[in-house]
């Protein structure tokens, strides 16, 4: 009853020689697995590194202008609806409302449909120009006064201004630099403000991950490198860099990395099988057709396979690092808990995480495929036929493959973490009033929350190898469940007197 208070400080403040030796063995075992794996990954990356050559690739970029044609930017001053047969290059006589003078042709012509024109002030200066807006943009989103747009300037092309009815300025896209930059700054500020130094390191790790994607994986796919190896090697490099850079070098991070690599391997195997078995060839995709016509080296099936593996990296990393951290926190709060009970407690957390993560993947893919889902719905096809169609099958398989990989990664990561944390032991607990653990204080899903409530209080001891910690610094309230349980443990059989 009271023995834990008298000698707990000296026992937990310094690890025993046996604990130090066990910790070293566990760390060496992790290093023996991860170091050769990292070396092999780096070697494979060097062997497969793309040359950067684009020989044999023929494509015409829509953003490469012909001689005399430029891409300009400007801000819309006014928007008008006029006949599409109007020549559109003259801005003479424009009024404050954007209307042209009566001498301009087309305003009163009959037989032509109306088009949307935006009178735009070029950013480089000069007179206001009349930009014709694409019909799909005008119908779906529209343009407003004050919008910044990018347009094609055809005025320098011979014959463009000869009154042949062709517009001299054609809308290309909106300029989104400012809103995207503001969102990026806000995102960085929020992450750093909440996660502080670790959040800053995570952002830098994200930049490094995209550098690997752009410099290694994408060029490798263009050059016809093996897509499965590209995805595995690139993803492993990304995970090693992101995990260690954001969370530091520790047994906890190494455990999460092992679980991540396991989940990555399962995902890769399933993706390779599903791509072939389901005949995923990107049929009907305009972008896929464009890539096929560019080069004979580009494999659309390989790109789909690589995408299936990479798409689950973020969620997989999330569940493994969370599960590893949960095991460490639970053990440091209750170091006397057996390995079996520690695994069971951590898996209760993991099961909740599995449920929420499966929803996350499904809804993320559904949101990205909303236009396709609407089209399929309007076709009024049977559900089974729609889910296995060329339009949706890739999204369905991506969801299933990613979910299987992350679900299997959770128990594996938890098991590795339990074995490692039991071997390494607790690192220097801070002397503090003793705490006890009682499994009846929380439900199955409250383990981590209860642990977090007392994590700052110091040493924790268990009463019966239970699941959750509870402070016993204050006496139990007479008549409460806690007082009754303490009385039963003392053998009184009665509640203590008020």
UniProtKB/TrEMBL annotation:
* InterPro entries for this protein: YibE_F
Q: Where are the transmembrane segments?
A: 28-49, 174-195, 202-222, 228-245, 257-278, 298-316, 357-379, 399-421
Annotated stretches, region: Disordered? 86-113, 460-498
- One of the Pfam families matching this protein, by short name: YibE_F
Bias (Basic and acidic residues) occurs at 483-498
Skewed-composition ranges (Low complexity):
86-104
Report keywords, A-Z.
Answer: Membrane, Transmembrane, Transmembrane helix
Query: What PANTHER family does the database record attribute to this sequence?
Result: MEMBRANE PROTEIN (PTHR41771:SF1), MEMBRANE PROTEIN-RELATED (PTHR41771)
**Descriptive protein name:** YibE/F family protein
Organism expressing this protein natively = Paenarthrobacter aromaticivorans
